[in-house]
């Protein structure tokens, strides 16, 4: 169950309106690695934990915090949109600054949301739950979380570099710091789980059931063998259970697949048509 | 540039048709963490590398291999669909097995693809590029890759547990082994990059520009403090640059946000209407 | 800012597992009118209110409650999935009940989420922010809310009718009651706003700028004139500013549109080709 | 069955081309509340009516009209795109007006549609049927319709404010008037249905089966109690069947949920790992 | 402008309800090549024609007819859903036929649409405008239309094979016949345009501006040279302007691409890190 | 199985950066008819061919080539983004060229991909597998391919017209030439299949099972009879099996559909409510 308090976790006041930046800032609100993604990802992982303890608590702590970040970003975006102009090409032609705004802002910020934030990214794609994952396996999921916080902090840093507004920078420096914490925390949780299980997810699948002969092999499918230089092609494997090796000229292990004809009621191309194609085949080409 | 050879990387022959399992197997072909996702993710990361060396080569090696896995899964699915029945409720009522197939198989496998694989997941959602990431920052992206191989292997293992077909199990045990390698290889590449940079992505953002006072703080936003037990709340931070701390009763750092009225040409709810709402406010509620 | 408590708003315990019903129940969690939709819709409306008062408070009260409903439904779905079987056609053929489950359940509940809830609807479409609206105009938005609670309660009632599980029915009867309240509350808020503005949204657009001659006209574009019987075709208009009228044989007010040719650099079909089409036109057809 | 006549319902001629405005105008053609949405929403509601009478007729009348609006908007957009320039940054640098167009217009209007309208919104998201609803319950659906016409008129008004082109304004003033009618008509139809049923949808679910004790309760989940001032928290409920009440400090009615472990074949995190997490738990934290 | 008449273009009465078949039939209503696709594709092509004549008239004739097909299919689906049962696993276990229906039908047909048709395909993906095209070049678009009618008829035929219901077969045999006509008509229109232009779209691009040396070359990128047997590798090209040729061992025409480093404010992986990767490179691998 | 070589199929070097054009060029990489679409379409068609011969070989040859085109376009886009500026409105106001770039470029090129290509179109919609088709019927699918190459070449030509950069033009003239070949090759393959089967897909459905009386009829559903002039309304049908005819005033063949009431457990609008609507019906309107 959730409670809301009206105060923001941290300030969200720009120095001045900037509808172009409002559009960009949408990325870390409603983009693939925006705050909606992490909030719902952590909540669904938390709800689905089959047990009850510190991992679930950590997920709910962080999920609830990300809801607060949605609120901060929505507030900042609404303020960046304060007094955003509307107009057409004639209006735009009269003032280059207004023209740049009219051409560059997200038109839905005026037409659809009435100067409010939208659950969408910086090009206007609406947020979708395809972005998130909750698999029931916490080591896998904490890796998803570490990735999300890495991508999210990278995007926040790029946005920080894109503005001269001290108020926006102030808020972003908060979010960047929180992403530092969240990378650290998932890193710590991953290390703990890896020490209890192993690094390969899932750790519960019997090793003898996989094709061990290719579990530590790098196949060179891209001409040039610079990849042979890496740690991943030399020495004991990272899971400690094998030895890396490198195959410079990988050959197929399987045959040319030939599929059976479809039943007539499927109305695929008839086998007779497919066969007849070879009737005129020049002999030297077979 | 790419070349194709007709042989499969590994065998893809089921013992018998099974249209229900064909539907499920679609998940690791065209789902969020299926082979299309990793193939295109590695290819885009590789194309976008700003430099040329072992990381790019590794990405292209692996991207090309994942294309081969698409091919293996498509072939296996087509064979699992061999002779799949069609029919209506009357047909279904005559034979419980046929009925189970008609009710449980993906109808598009008959109607749309003519007994061929579809670039979609196990519930029929078509594959979408929203699933993938290529950020230009390789540490961030290799974490995305490690996550993808973790989730992918987890799903392949669950599918392995779901079938009694020795041919399908044989192919899955190959794919599971390759996912073992791919988890190992991204793990190795991550360790190398972390040792050169630091664990926090991006490593190039000046530390003094983030709010360091909350870079290592766990806020307890979910009542109950089991999360205080974790490594993430105690000791030196994982990046070695701070000390974890725990705040049991986190208070807001910001104010209640009040947004300015919108310009009249936006036609939001009028400020006068919003204000008038307080006219009838009982005094004891303020 | 948000806080979470571990207890559920209301119980979410089924009498017994039922993976088929788990699939169906996803509709009111992650469907068009599910709890994710209302939670995020109310939150975005609340964040975007340009003013601060009872409407904003009401939106945040209800938005926070809907987050609790997401949690209840996710918990219920996870429990309905307890011990869900996996297997293929051979497994299915051995036991008709297991077969029905394998054919009818959402395969992602086993393969992707590991027996956890998914942010998706009952056919597996992932939730998307296209479902929600926050326009900045509260009368418009409260109508969206009343609609969402109407559709949501209708779906919950249909699900109630679809189960014999007393635990599921108990939880649904809670959610249905809350939807009763939420329909009542948005209804009340709408009445208040309509009494301050007018029923036509937005109320701030000058009446003389619209084509008043067709503001209260029902055009009969569907042969048969039963629609002429309605209140909407007779008497004073609902906004009190006009009189309804009915046009049985509506004629076009505009001309046949003919578009100018495209510039050559667009490479549309050439005007000469389009023109030449009339060269062979039989005279009696013009 | 449908017939088409070549004349437009109303004129759609701009004074001058304006590719930037063409992009914006797409919103009410192919956006969430654009004409495609209402046309298909009314048609599907009409096709699905289980009965035959004035409601169905009204739906088909209005659905057919909305098809005419699609045509008007498509025509207007094509004309706003007349002679739209193409070019790159070098071209743009030579003329600020051309530059503003090249930067601000929808590039697909040149590359994809060849200066024609696209079934998409103002940021280029293609129309999707997720936007619409036809539930079989007309009171619910007419509320969806009233909402759609409210949002649609609001957007049309905002577009009217954004242009100085008399031809565009002329067409918009027609569409705005029709939205006035359509809001009035659904309002009338809703009142009629509410008087026959009740305001709570669906009206056919037995009251005693819902948790009546919370059917009229406002829970204060957002700190601050301004929402207690509203009609929704005081007096007889809007459906006349209860009394509103307000709970300032709402407590959970449910327990902390603890989910059972998953079967081993699901390969979630092992219960032993989840349990072992408490082994090192400092005693004072429990 | 459009008019509707209440009668159907053709009968849509099944012999008996069949909720499983209702789900399948959705494919040709709301799938990629369903009636919504062709209706809106022809309408948008027609609205966008820059000229006025027989092609536009043909597009509008056919677009209006496809609207009638939407109506027929929606009606048929609603009737196939008559009395569709609801229930859970316990209900399903009592009657194998009911169980097959509950497991196999689209649950949204009961929960969301109240036994009405949905604008979605046979697996529940909602219709989206990504399916359609209107490019402004009629030869290109008529090829899209011929493809749509080919895929659509193929799917209708497969559905015909899947049912024993004489009423459904009767309606499908109508739709199949209309698809015969529509394939014939677009074929005729294509031939006419090809005879006026040429077969290569667009015909208006100066031949000397393309790399003529590879305009008629088949590159053998897939090992095995069966494709050399085809007409496409031998003789005069189909457009009459060149000669087909076959390259058995195609080599790259371009160089290995090396991208420049990104500016520091983008925070991609640093060039120094990418460079340093070669420091530990074993000498024999370069 | 696939192999990659590092060299590009053809050069991809622009003369100078141009972030605006980079955005546009995304269309033929990740749009509806971009290279991802054709690569995956040909690969899935090839994998699904139920037979093994020249058609499969041709599909794999061309599919592999399209992968090379993805690589060329990704490389070109990354280079067009070299040194792309970031900044806010203040930055934009200082230099009109920088302002045009900041307003017009795809913000994700900086924030998300770090100056790399994105699997998306020119307005930022991510690529989706809804764009492609593999039906198992090669004549149908080759028509899809001919359409894709027609639309793709049209878009490439429009982009060629939009740039003054000799390097970009050089690469586009390569792609345009390849599209010339691919149109020619699918045209040849289609002719071959049509000569073996017939022009109507699928050719395997017994003619007597369709309603032959409307297989060659053009119904005039759009007032005006210019469409009567066409070949499609006169003479022997294109498939040689019938005679075209034209119906100027098409009447319905079906009845007004009236659907049965829904069962009570569906909670649609009650039949009694629908019936009662006629109680107040003025007698002269029936």
UniProtKB/TrEMBL annotation, chains A, B, C, D, E, F:
Q: Which GO terms describe its molecular function?
A: metal ion binding
Q: How is the cofactor bound?
A: Binds 2 manganese ions per subunit.
InterPro entries in alphabetical order: Ferritin-like, Ferritin-like_SF, Mn_catalase, Mn_catalase_C, Mn_catalase_dom
**Nucleotidyltransferase as UniProt keyword:** no
One Pfam family for this entry, by name?
Mn_catalase
Q: Does the keyword Manganese apply?
A: yes
This protein's cofactor list reads: Mn(2+); Ca(2+)
* Family the UniProt entry places it in: Belongs to the manganese catalase family.
In Swiss-Prot or TrEMBL terms, this protein is called Manganese catalase
Q: Which organism is it from?
A: Jeotgalibacillus proteolyticus
